[in-house]
Amino acid sequence: xxxxxxxxxxxxxxxxxxxxxxxxxxxxxxxxxxxxxxxxxxxxxxxxxxxxxxxxxxxxxxxxxxxxxxxxxxxxxxxxxxxxxxxxxxxxxxxxxxxxxx
Length: 102
Hints:
Elements (H helix, E strand, L loop, with lengths): L1 E6 L10 H25 L7 E8 L5 E5 L5 H14 L2 E2 L12
Parallel strand pairs: 1-2, 3-4
Antiparallel strand pairs: 2-3
């Protein structure tokens, strides 16, 4: 199984803002840690080939996560368990692909 956890970093509104840099570095580190943890837990799972998880911040700077490909329920529940244990919240809605049209 290939496990990929991607940090979705918001573009800086104010380039060089120290808080943005720290938050983005934290998100990249957290994504790498979650990927390593999920790899350890799910390495023997042959139920699916790939697992792709996006991580980002919500408007209140809580870390949120979302599985973006089809996976079996057992894999989804393990990811949810791991993320809940770490205090991450589920990324609700389809904000990733939200396009405004007139």
